[in-house]
Design brief:
Length: 405
C-alpha cells in the first residue's frame, strides 16, 4: 500500500481531537471486550444456561431500548463531553464492583445481570452523545472516513480484547479481565478532558417531548431514512445473537476451552478490521445503499455457513467473512444517516438510529434465548442468516429507497 493510499485510508487522523478520541475509545473497547468474553464465560460456567447468556445480553441492551431516545434529546441540549464523562465513570464503577465480587468469590449470576443493566443505562446516554460528537471533529467530506476509522478502533479492540481475554482467563481468571476493563476507562476520560472541540447548544424552552418529536419528523420527511432505520433494527436483531452463542459452540460442538472462544472473537475482529479498512479506503462513494445491501447478503451467508460448520478451520473462515461484511454494512449505513442529518438534530436523529440499531441486539438475543433450547444454536443461527439474505433482497428488489441512496 503506497503513501497516498495510506493517507486516504487514514485521512481523519489528521484531526487532533479525532485522534485523541480514537485512541481513548480503542483502549476502552479493548477492556470492554475482555470483560464481554470473561462475563459470557463466567455466566456459562456458573449456570451452564444458554438462556442466561441471552438474558445477560438482553439486560445490557434493554436500557438502550428504554432510554436512548431521551439520551438523544439530552445530547442536543447538554455539552456532549460532560455526558460522555459521566457515562465512562458509571461503566468504570460497574466493572470495578464486578472485579471485587469475583475476587472475593461471592459473585452470583443475578449480580452480573444487574451490573449489565447499569452499564447499559450509562451507554443509553453516552451512545447518542458519542455518535453526535465524532462527526463534528472532522470536516463534512471526511465524515465517512471518520466513521469507518471509528469502526476500525472498535474492531481492533474486538481482535485484541478477546485474544487477551482468552490468555488471561486461562492463566489468571475472570477477575483480571474485569479489573483491566475498569482501568481501561481512564483512557477515554483523559481524552475527553483534553480535546478542544465543544458543542454549546442553544437554550431551549421546548419540552423534551417536543424536541424528540422534531427528530421523528425530520426522519419521516426523509423517507429513505425510515427504511435505513428499519434495516438497522433487522440486521442487528438477526446477526448479533451469533456472537452471544460462541460459548455454546466452543463447549458443546467443538469441545474446546476459553482460548478457542477468544480465537473465534478475534478472527471475527480481523474480518471486521478488513471490512472497515475497505470502507475507509473507498471514502465517500456513490450508491452506498446498494453496496450495504450487497454486503448484507454476504453477512447472511457467512452466519449460516458458521452455524452449519462442524469443522473448526471452516468456522474460522466464515467468521472472517462475517466480520468483514458486518462492518462494511454497519459503517456504510451509519455514514448514510450522518450525511443526511444536520448538527442541530444529530443527537435526536442518532438516538432514534441507535434505538433501532442497538435495540435489535437485546430483542434478537431474547428471542434467540427462547429458540435455542428448543431448536439448538446451529439451527436457529442458520435460519437467521437465511433471513438476512431475504431482507437484503427485499430492499434491493421491492422497497428500493435504501438501494437508491
Amino acid at each position: 500500500m503506497d503513501t497516498s493510499t495510506l493517507r486516504k485510508v487514514f485521512k481523519a487522523f489528521q484531526y487532533r481531537d479525532f485522534r485523541l478520541m480514537w485512541i481513548g475509545a480503542c483502549t476502552s473497547s479493548i477492556g470492554t471486550w475482555m470483560q464481554i468474553v470473561a462475563q459470557g464465560w463466567l455466566i456459562y460456567r456458573l449456570s451452564h444456561s444458554s438462556f442466561l447468556l441471552g438474558l445477560d445480553q438482553f439486560l445490557g441492551g434493554l436500557p438502550i431500548f428504554l432510554f436512548t431516545l431521551i439520551g438523544g434529546v439530552v445530547a442536543d441540549r447538554v455539552e456532549r463531553r460532560k455526558i460522555l464523562l459521566i457515562s465512562q465513570y458509571i461503566q468504570m464503577a460497574s466493572a470495578a464492583i464486578l472485579t471485587v465480587l469475583v475476587a472475593t468469590g461471592v459473585v452470583q449470576v443475578w449480580e452480573i445481570l444487574c451490573l449489565s443493566f447499569v452499564s447499559g443505562l450509562a451507554q443509553a446516554f453516552g451512545g447518542p452523545a458519542y455518535s453526535a460528537l465524532i462527526p463534528t471533529l472532522v470536516d463534512r467530506e471526511d465524515m465517512p472516513n471518520a466513521i469507518a476509522l471509528n469502526s476500525i478502533q472498535f474492531n481492533l479492540a474486538v481482535t485484541i480484547g478477546p485474544a487477551l481475554a482468552g490468555v488471561t482467563l486461562a492463566r489468571l481468571g475472570e477477575k483480571w479481565c474485569f479489573g483491566l476493563n475498569a482501568l481501561s476507562f481512564l483512557a477515554p476520560i483523559i481524552s475527553l478532558s483534553i480535546i478542544s472541540a465543544r458543542f454549546l447548544p442553544e437554550k431551549s424552552a421546548e419540552s423534551m417531548f417536543t424536541s424528540l418529536m422534531q427528530g421523528f419528523r425530520f426522519i419521516w420527511h426523509h423517507g429513505a431514512m425510515v427504511g435505513v432505520i428499519v434495516l438497522a433494527f433487522t440486521m442487528t436483531f438477526l446477526s448479533m445473537p451469533m456472537r452471544t452463542y460462541f460459548p455454546v459452540f466452543v463447549k458443546d460442538i467443538f469441545h474446546r476451552g476459553p482460548e478457542t472462544y477468544g480465537n473465534l472473537l478475534s478472527l471475527m475482529g480481523v474480518g471486521s478490521i478488513c471490512g472497515s479498512l475497505g470502507v475507509a479506503g473507498l471514502g465517500n462513494i456513490g450508491k452506498k445503499g446498494r453496496f450495504a445491501l450487497t454486503m448484507l447478503i454476504c453477512l447472511g451467508a457467512g452466519i449460516s455457513g458458521f452455524a452449519l460448520s462442524k469443522f473448526l478451520p471452516v468456522s474460522y473462515a466464515m467468521l472472517v467473512l462475517v466480520g468483514a461484511s458486518m462492518m462494511a454494512v454497519f459503517a456504510t449505513v451509519t455514514s448514510l444517516v450522518q450525511l443526511i442529518v444536520t448538527n442541530e438534530m444529530r443527537g435526536r436523529v442518532m438516538s432514534v438510529y441507535n434505538f433501532a440499531f442497538r435495540g435489535g441486539m437485546p430483542m434478537g438475543n431474547l428471542a434467540t434465548s427462547w429458540l435455542v433450547p428448543a431448536f439448538t444454536a446451529p439451527v436457529v443461527l442458520s435460519v437467521n442468516g437465511f433471513l438476512l439474505i431475504l431482507v437484503a433482497l427485499y430492499f434491493l428488489a421491492v422497497q428500493r429507497r435504501v438501494a437508491a441512496l
